[in-house]
Design brief:
With about 100 residues, the protein is an alpha+beta fold. It has a single domain, classed as Alpha-Beta Plaits. The chain starts with a strand and ends in a 9-residue tail after the last strand.
Length: about 100
């Protein structure tokens, strides 16, 4: 699993939300990342947003981190984020409950 946290710059909350929604609903970009199993965008507070993704293995994680979806936060960071770059973390899922 990868997770990234993003704090929006003042007055850019709506733009950051729209950017995440546009990415997730785009049919082309997620299809290109065949090794990304799931991709979720979330909101922690009015200005803090995040994304987490899941992968079958390290190959999928690496492909994602080098892909278009992972590059998007870096592109918007200078104008829409309160920090220079998003906080990207890698973790391993130990257990799940899925439908």
């Amino acid at each position: 699993m990868n997770g990234s946290g993003e704090e929006s710059a003042e007055s850019h909350e709506d733009g950051l939300v729209q950017d995440r929604v546009d990415q997730q609903q785009s049919t082309e970009v997620p299809r290109e990342e065949e090794l990304t199993l799931t991709w979720f965008a979330f909101k922690e507070s009015p200005t803090v947003f995040g994304v987490f993704d899941t992968f079958q293995d390290e190959q999928g994680r690496t492909a994602h981190l080098n892909g278009k979806i992972a590059a998007a936060p870096m592109q918007i960071a200078p104008t829409m984020l309160a920090v220079d770059s998003p906080d990207i973390r890698t973790t391993d899922i130990l257990a799940t409950k899925l439908p």
